[in-house]
Design goal:
Elements: E1 7-11, H1 15-26, E2 30-34, E3 46-49, E4 52-55, E5 61-62, H2 69-77, E6 85-86, E7 90-96, E8 101-105, H3 108-118, H4 123-136, H5 148-158, H6 162-169, H7 173-177, H8 183-190, H9 192-196, H10 199-210, E9 214-217, H11 220-234, E10 238-240, E11 245-251, E12 254-260, E13 265-267, E14 270-273, H12 277-284, H13 292-300, E15 306-314, E16 324-336, E17 339-348, E18 361-369, H14 372-381, H15 383-404, E19 412-418, H16 420-427, E20 458-460, H17 473-489, E21 494-495, E22 506-507
Parallel strand pairs: 1-2, 1-14, 2-10, 7-16, 14-20
Antiparallel strand pairs: 3-4, 5-9, 6-9, 7-8, 11-12, 12-13, 15-18, 15-19, 16-17, 17-18, 21-22
Helix pairs in contact: 1-11, 1-17, 3-4, 4-10, 14-15
Bound molecules: flavin-adenine dinucleotide.
Length: about 500
């Protein structure tokens, strides 16, 4: 690749930073990614404990279907065909303590039959729901940063989908769930952050699953991250680990580089922050480039909850279990001051042979909480109390699992608990948020500003500028930033796709 003589420094080696690195390298820039952790991925992470690997992030990857629309975006960056995807036929099984069970299938026909069997009283709402899943299967994602010129064809294709899209876009999950009398179905939409999000988020995800376009890749999110690392190395880029950026160096309102903790200054022609938005704006830039819009976003918008993750290495083959199980509890469990949960989710990773040796199963449970301050304070001021609380929560979760699989406790050979303090320590995400901003009803699918008022040669990318977050927010926010930089530098934005013969080079 011919270099154009300009350097881009990228703060953060999560999916967004890595996506920007590949786009920039393909356009001829010198690229250095600075990652504070000792490995890449950010929230797209797993960790090894004994013979088990515990995934935190990946449930589904939008764009997993070969030749699907978002698949083409991934393939501008990496050869996604190197990954093996699996599509569980049951998205989640929901059960009560007294054995009432609802199976949410990924296939719309099977889901419809299951729902009508279970809740005939909800026939109208079920038909509307399944109709929405099928209709959204035809929905073409627009380039959120593009104008009419980039989007006109997909806009045209989306005309028939638009009325339904607008209708569900205005409703929260809770409002949508209220259309069903069946308590489990109602709870599916209304529980936790899902109830606050636009209903569109869940229905669109189910539409992608029905299309086999939201699968899980064997090896989890780190398998995807490794493809990016390999591509960056192949294109001559650098990822520097244990490199924590303390501040963005600004001269006459122009970003000219960054300074690491320890004092080292790294000059650059452009600086992109793919790190936490709040820390970037208010710490690395000292809050000097904020207007009313940005101030209002950070003062008023709601973030996704943080979470504890209880991970269990179980010396039993649990392949008869669903990939995901939600256990609805008779009485709530206490996670921390202010957080009680009336249901607990489990993931049984029997479908991923890289997660455990044969005959054993990695099992995880994600427990949402907004009380990140409690966990941070406990960890720093009372390490013994912190360990004790983690052990208590693990016991509570194992008790819930015992209700589903009596006797399972005896087969647990590895136990690990991470908390919001872990998320903050390893990824720097504000309030330990799982995915940045909640996409509220009525907001539409559009990004927040990717520049700061009065600051030149600087861009923000990643989940903090794309409400709803998710791995696709990486390429979706990196692409327009690099494209805008290329435009300013009069460099052609021409991206050679990774799978030759299937795609034509993307211009513009
Ligand atoms: C439990 C859970 C489940 C999820 N499930 C899914 C799913 O099924 N599908 C999906 O698509 N998405 C899912 N997500 C969301 C997805 O993981 C995130 O939205 C996405 O990974 C965010 O990527 P990012 O690059 O914007 O941010 P991050 O991943 O947070 O990356 C930011 C990086 O910047 C680094 N950094 C921060 N500060 C500094 C600094 N000062 N100097 C240097 N480096 C710094 C961090 O260490 C980190 O590596 C899930 C997330 C969680 C937590």
């Amino acid at each position: 690749m011919k270099r154009n003589g300009k350097k881009i420094v990228i703060i953060g080696g999560g999916i967004a930073g890595l996506s920007a690195a590949v786009y920039a390298l393909k356009c001829g820039y010198e690229v250095e990614v600075l990652e504070m952790h000792d490995m890449a991925g950010g929230l797209a992470m797993s960790w090894r404990r004994g013979p088990y690997t515990f995934e935190t992030c990946l449930h589904w990857l939008i764009g997993s279907k070969p030749d699907g629309e978002f698949n083409q975006v991934w393939k501008e960056l990496v050869d996604l065909d190197k990954l093996t995807f699996v599509d569980p036929h049951e998205f989640v099984r929901i059960e009560t303590e007294d054995g009432d069970t609802l199976r949410m299938y990924t296939n719309a026909d099977m889901l419809e039959a299951e729902l009508l069997r279970r809740a005939p009283q909800d026939i109208d709402a079920i038909h509307d729901f399944i109709h929405a899943i099928r209709t959204f299967g035809k929905f073409k994602l627009l380039d959120p940063a593009g104008g009419i010129a980039e989007n006109w064809l997909n806009m045209l294709r989306d005309v028939p989908v638009m009325p339904l899209l607008m209708k569900l876009g205005k409703m929260s999950g809770k409002e949508y769930g209220a259309r069903f009398a069946d308590p489990l179905l109602r709870g599916f939409f209304a529980t936790g952050d899902m109830g606050k999000l636009t209903a569109l988020a869940m229905v669109l995800s189910l539409a992608w699953m029905n299309n086999h376009d939201a699968g899980y890749c064997i090896g989890g999110s780190q398998a995807l991250i490794r493809l990016f690392e390999e591509k960056i190395a192949e294109l001559g880029g650098t990822i520097r680990f244990n490199a924590r950026v303390e501040r963005v160096i600004v001269e006459e309102d122009r970003a000219i580089g960054v300074q690491l903790v320890g004092g080292e200054a790294i000059p650059a022609d452009w600086v992109i922050s793919a790190a936490d938005g709040h820390a970037t704006i208010y710490e690395m830039l000292g809050g000097r480039y904020v207007n009313d819009t940005i101030g209002k976003i950070y003062a008023e918008s709601e973030t996704f909850a943080s979470y504890l993750q209880v991970s269990l290495g179980i010396a039993r083959d649990l392949k008869e279990q669903p990939a995901m199980l939600t256990r609805v509890l008779g009485s709530p469990i206490v996670i921390d001051p202010g957080t009680e949960l009336s249901s607990v989710g489990f993931r049984f990773f029997h479908f991923d042979p890289t997660s455990a040796p044969a005959g054993k199963t990695a099992v995880t449970s994600i427990l949402p909480t907004r009380n990140y301050e409690y966990w941070e304070k406990l960890r720093s001021e009372d390490p013994q109390g912190y360990r004790a609380e983690k052990a208590r929560v693990a016991e509570v979760v194992i008790d819930v699992l015992e209700g589903h699989l009596p006797g399972i406790r005896r087969s647990i050979e590895v136990m690990d608990v991470s908390t919001p303090a872990t998320v903050i320590r390893y990824t720097g995400n504000w309030k330990g948020s799982q995915e940045g901003w909640i996409m509220p009803p009525g907001a539409g699918i559009k990004p927040y500003p990717n520049t700061l008022p009065g600051l030149d040669h600087f861009f923000l990318i990643g989940q903090w500028i794309m409400p709803g977050g998710g791995l696709p927010s990486g390429p979706m926010t990196a692409r327009p930033a690099i494209k805008a930089i290329c435009k300013r530098d009069r460099v052609a934005f021409e991206i050679e796709p990774e799978v030759h013969g299937q795609l034509t080079a993307a211009k513009g």
